[in-house]
Design goal:
Strand order of the largest sheet: 10-9-8-11-12-13
Radius of gyration: 36 Å
Shape: globular
Distance between the termini: 80 Å
Structural class: alpha/beta
Largest sheet: 6 strands, parallel
Length: about 650
């Protein structure tokens, strides 16, 4: 996965709990579960992500923290001892506030442990990954779980009209190339690989949240339920929001809805805000400017609010699947949220109150404030548990024999292919009309030309009748394209089998990510600091001394000994074991040689050798049949050796 505790984010908590529940009973059956977590190597990255108070000096220290949380907070003592934890080096990309692996991540996994692999955020794990083996070639079965809608985040960043479509295509590429089965947590995500993907909520909530809900169920069934100061129908309003303090989480929408409820229905309520984030101070100032009773309290464990609040409001539509909504429902609270594909799973619960407009929000809020929540049944509580989530994951992650056979039959037809839905082209209405008019005008002129050419061919007697009819039939074909629909929802038709397309994408991925050119590709793609994977691997090799190792002396085998003369064998052995080191002559050495040459008689062999050292252009003389032959063309000045 792409995150680790103490970073309390969904990609840190949910994979840890999934690994813990998958390990139940597995060791006794002879199996194991290994969780690979990012070790944040640089201190400045740790400080930004974990805070100054929660920094670690080694992976072993952080592993102790993770196991302690799993044992004490999640109440999973057995799993905290049985789950294997392995670490890979990661750096933070500050602009994206994300962690990415450095070096060969797959190379860290022993061959004897390569059975089934679960990639939490497969697109994120492979964007800037260093060169190495591929997941699908090393593991028998690879399941990817998509947590985050990066396309939505990209639309809120600079140069979104380029970055967002590129992000969508890149995410689809990574998911298609690196997994056998893709699980999307909700229908809010677009298509990545249609023949591999399905929608299923494979997340659950900790047992502590369900325990609160079961205890509240007993209180609501007691005779004194009408007098409960928090959950009764006549209790004082206790409303809250918990999550990251980001504008993308719907903070502005929440303020507008609360203001509208106050102005239209006289519902003036206090909303306690819990969580941290970069937009916290700005959001607090805006709430004060709107005269809202909305105090900001900072981060807190959600379970601590189990007995203090009755209504949870979550206005976010940027989520794929909101964990805090599941936790609030498990604790038996009312949850007011927008009607959105990311919330479809929660709409089955009686205490979930979805709205589609401001008026419905006000009505749902009034109902929640004036009623007691419905006690959670065993069926609903189990549906939110990690036990049920693990069962759903096992069913969704596997590929049945019938499904595999049906897919193979469908893809064996001659018309088999893949429709890749591209992002809509973001242009204004005037520009779209201009493009449409220009296209229709050009198409009309081309059709007139084809019509006249068809008429000329019909009048001509030069061509054979059969060829004439074929040409006319081709010219009569029309390209019927609805350009407006094409601009709104462009689609690329690839006439390849998915398996062939996967192989081509993997080959393309390998070709563009290896060597120094791969670093350029990754940096251009957005990995300013984490994209230099090839350079990082070279630096690590230099530190360990593995970049240049002296080779042991080499010996000639017997097959060479029988075919070579003794002189040749000696020359080969010397050249292989004692490479010649050519030394460059500096100016002082050349001047000294010149001085020696002047003192030597011109007709001597010593004078010739001195000139040979000075000038490599003189060459070597060879004795052939009693004559002198130069290795280079003869010079104007001839000096005999003797």
């Amino acid at each position: 996965t792409t995150a680790s505790l103490p970073w309390m984010t969904g990609t840190a908590v949910n994979p840890l709990l999934r690994a813990a529940y998958l390990s139940t009973g597995r060791k006794a059956a002879g199996g194991s579960v290994t969780l690979m977590l990012p070790w944040v190597e640089r201190d400045e990255d740790q400080k930004r992500i974990y805070g100054k108070e929660k920094m670690f000096e080694s992976p072993e220290d952080q592993e102790k923290f993770v196991r302690t949380w799993l044992r004490d907070t999640a109440n999973m003592k057995e799993a905290s001892e049985e789950v294997n934890i392995r670490w890979y080096t990661a750096w933070q990309e500050v602009l994206e506030n994300s962690l990415y692996s450095m070096g060969d991540l797959i190379g860290l996994i022993p061959e004897d442990e390569c059975d089934i692999c679960v990639l939490e955020e497969p697109e994120h794990l492979n964007w800037y990954r260093g060169p190495g083996d591929n997941w699908t070639s090393k593991f028998k079965h690879v399941v990817g779980i998509v947590h985050t809608n990066y396309f939505v985040y990209a639309t809120e960043q600079p140069a979104a009209f380029i970055r967002a479509p590129g992000m969508k295509l890149l995410a689809s590429w990574m998911c298609r190339a690196h997994v056998h089965r893709l699980i999307k947590l909700s229908g809010t995500l677009g298509q990545f690989a249609p023949e591999k993907e399905l929608v299923e909520n494979v997340h659950g909530v900790r047992r502590s949240f369900i325990d609160v809900g079961e205890e509240l169920k007993g209180k609501l069934a007691s005779p004194d339920a009408d007098k409960d100061p928090v959950f009764s129908a006549d209790a004082s309003p206790a409303v809250y929001f918990i999550g990251k303090m980001l504008w993308s989480k719907g903070l502005a929408s929440l303020m507008e809805l609360i203001k509208y409820a106050e102005e239209s229905a006289g519902l003036k309520v206090k909303v306690d805000m819990y969580g941290g984030g970069p937009d916290k101070d700005e959001a607090s100032e805006k709430a004060e400017s709107m005269s809202l009773d909305m105090p900001f309290h900072g981060p807190i464990d959600h379970v601590e609010l189990g007995w203090t609040h009755k209504v949870f409001i979550n206005p976010s539509t940027s989520e794929v699947l909101c964990t805090t909504v599941a936790e609030a429902l498990a604790m038996g609270k009312f949850v007011v949220l927008p009607s959105h594909p990311s919330n479809d799973f929660f709409c089955q619960f009686p205490n979930c109150l979805p709205y589609t407009n401001k008026e419905e929000f006000v009505g749902n809020l009034y109902y929640a404030l004036t009623h007691a929540p419905e006690p959670m049944s065993e069926e609903y509580s189990y549906a939110l548990s990690w036990e049920a989530a693990t069962e759903r994951f096992a069913a969704a992650g596997s590929v049945s024999v019938a499904e595999a056979e049906a897919m193979e039959e469908a893809l064996s037809s001659t018309d088999a292919g893949i429709d890749i839905i591209l992002p809509s082209i973001k242009i204004n209405k005037e520009r779209k009309q201009l493009i449409s008019r220009s296209f229709r005008r050009t198409r009309g002129r081309y059709r007139n030309f084809r019509t006249r050419l068809s008429q000329e061919i019909m009048k001509s007697d030069v061509l054979p009748k059969e060829l004439q009819q074929r040409l006319i039939a081709e010219l009569d074909k029309r390209l019927d394209v609805d350009l407006d629909e094409l601009l709104d929802s462009p689609k690329l038709r690839v006439k390849l089998s998915p398996a062939k397309l996967d192989k081509l994408l993997l080959d393309l991925y390998d070709s563009v990510t290896k060597g120094p050119s791969g670093d350029v590709f990754r940096v251009i793609g957005g990995g300013a600091s984490v994209g230099r994977q090839h350079q990082y691997l070279k630096q690590q090799a230099a530190k360990t001394g593995t970049h240049q190792q002296s080779k042991p002396p080499s010996f000639l085998d017997a097959s060479v000994l029988n075919k070579s003369s003794p002189t040749t064998l000696v020359t080969k052995a010397l050249n292989r074991n004692f490479p010649r080191n050519e030394k460059k002559l500096d100016d002082t050495t050349i001047a000294e040689n010149n001085r020696k040459e002047e003192n030597v008689p011109k007709m001597s062999l010593s004078g010739h050798r001195a000139r040979q050292v000075q000038s490599s252009s003189w060459g070597v003389r060879l004795v052939r049949h009693g004559s002198f032959t130069q290795s280079r063309p003869p010079q104007t000045r001839y000096v005999p050796l003797i």
